[in-house]
Amino acid sequence: MQQAPTAGELPKLLRRDRMRDLRERAIGAALLTAAAVGALTTAGIILSLAGETIRFFGQVPIVDFFTETEWTPLFSIQKFGVWPLVSATVLTSAIALLLAVPVGLIAAIYLSEFATLHVRSLFKPMLEVLAGVPTVVYGFFALTVITPFLQGFVPGLSTFNALSAGFVMGVMIIPLVASLSEDALSAVPVSLREGAYAMGATRFEVATRVVFPAAISGVIASIILALSRAVGETMIVAIAAGMNPILSFDPRVPIETMTAYIVQISLGDTPYGSLSYLTIFAVGSTLFFMTFLMNVLSFWVVRRFREVYD
Fold it and tell me: What are the b/e assignments for 285-307, b being 16+ CB within 10 Å?
C-alpha cells in the first residue's frame, strides 16, 4: 500500500507537478506553432500574390486573360491570353506522367510484392536518390543529352522542345510515384495476401488483383501529387523547353510554361511595377490555384477511396 507523502515531501511533489505541467504546455505550444506554419505560409503566399494580381486585373480584363489565345506582354502590341502558357504546362506535365506513372507503379509493385528485404533496402534508396538531384542538372541533361538523342528518331524536333523536357521531368518524379505508391501497397494487411494465396492465387494475381485495388487511394494520391510537382517545375522547362509562348500541343516545338515565364520576367529586364511585371503575379496566382486544386483533389481521393482495415 502506497504511503501518503509527508509534510516535507509535499512541496517537492507540488513543484514537480507544476514543472511537468509547464513542460506539457510548452510542448503543446510548440506543436501548435509547428502545425500553424503551413497554414500561415499558405496565407502569406495568397496575400503576397493577391495585391499585385488585383492591380493586374485592374488594367487587363479577366475575360481577356482567360479567353484570348495570344501571350505577348513584352511586345509593342500586348496580348494577355494565358492559354499558351497553360497549354505548355499541361503538355510537359502530361508527357512526364506518361513516363513516371507506369515506371513508378511497376517499381512500387516490385519493391512491395516481389523484392526480397535485402533488395528492397538496396534499391529503394537508390531510386529515391533521383529526387535529390538538382533540377538544373536535369535541365542541362535534357538539353545536352536527351534532345540530341531524340533528334535521331523524332523528325523535326527542335533544340528546345516539350518532349525532352517532359521526359526528364518524368524521370524526376518517378521516385515520388514509386515511393508513395510502395508505402500504400505495403500498408495493405498481410491477411488479404494470405487469404488470396489460400485460394490458389499466384503472386502476380495477388499483387495486381488484391493488393493494388486495396491501395488504390494511396496510389491515386501519389500520382496527383507527382502531377502537381511536375506542374510547378521550373528549371527543367526553362532550360530545355524554350521560351516561345505559343498555343500548341506539338511536343517537338519550343514552348513556354508558366514557371518558365515567371523566370524570364524575374531576371530583372522588366521595369518594376509595370504591367508586364504584374503579369508574373497573375500567372503565379493561376499556377498556385492549379496546384492547390490538385492537392485538394488528392486529399479528397484519399478520404473517398481509403480502405479501413480492423
Answer: bbbbebbeebeebbeebbeeeee
